[in-house]
Amino acid sequence: MSVLVAASAQIGSAFPQRPDESLYHCVSAALRKAGLRKPDVDLSVVASRDLYDACSMSNGQTLPAAAGWLTGSVTRLETDISAAIVLADAVLSAGDAEIAVVSGVHLPQAHSAARSFDEQVSNLAAEPIYERAVGLSATSLLAMHAARLVTNGTTTQHELARIAARELGIDVEAVLSSAPVAWPLTDLMLPAETTGAVALVLATPERAQAMGMGRARIVAHGMAASGGLADGEWLEAPHAATERAARDAYRRAGIIEPSTEIDVAELTAASPAMHEPLRRALQLSDLADVRIGGSGGVRRSFGGVVNGALRLLGAIESLERDGGRRAVVHSTDTLTGPLGATTTVTVLERI
């Protein structure tokens, strides 16, 4: 169990800085808020991707920028930042560190359109690992899943648009009339790509108490991964990994009835077709709609590898605003959509 004592997020549609510069300013701001300096940091964990950073070995740039230079323990993960939070929390809980900085940066150094670049990266990631299939990408896989639900009568395109419209606060017709991407999905049904950096300062409960700081307590995690193309889970039950992760997180947190014990939730539903299946997987079907996705979800802001931190901060802000006690945060690595995705479910408590 660890405590979030400070955080900094610099998110926007465009950034003039390089990834390491953006990360440096973000980490510096978080440390200032916590009243700490670089020598106080025992562990630094960074989430980023070389291909987006336009550097074959971005460790040499991002790790020093994230208070990693001459720090006792430092590492970088090429996946959603939620995995970095789990790693840091485990180290702190084991008593091997008192202060950890978890940071991530998503600032693609590409001049092409964001979605076009993401599709290229997604296809490159999927092809050598899973299948040498033309057009295999996160969007095409999400569209096939959504199309299956529409054609078998489970949902309709209008219902998918209604879910997206509710999250965006716009009319259903605006969603339906947005640019078609891959039937039945339109542009406004997909995550809103944004860029930037996030830094979280975590501490052991004892150190946080000594500092007189703390916004939320990380109670438990659960992690699970979905399979490849052959097992068909990505098409028939892409929520299954979330169900497994949630089961572990709730068991470790001692939660028996999630719908009554959880006050707010943040989901990473990469398409509206994933929204209801994920709610069921998290056992939150009975939780009021207004308590889910208070930050607006991924259709308002999706920051690539820093998405997990955005969802976590959104949940904490909802708890602080509404006076809730406990939240659950769901995040997943969407690089290849529902294919081989690592899902993390985190249970938080407001301090």
Automatic annotation (TrEMBL):
The keyword Chloroplast belongs to this UniProt entry's keyword annotation: no
Keywords: Transferase
Signal peptide: none
Protein's UniProt keywords contain tRNA processing: no
Highest taxon listed in the record's lineage: Bacteria
InterPro entries with a match to the protein in the record: Thiolase-like
Gene Ontology molecular function terms on file: acyltransferase activity
Name of this protein: Acetyl-CoA acetyltransferase
Upper taxonomic lineage: Bacteria, Bacillati, Actinomycetota, Actinomycetes, Mycobacteriales
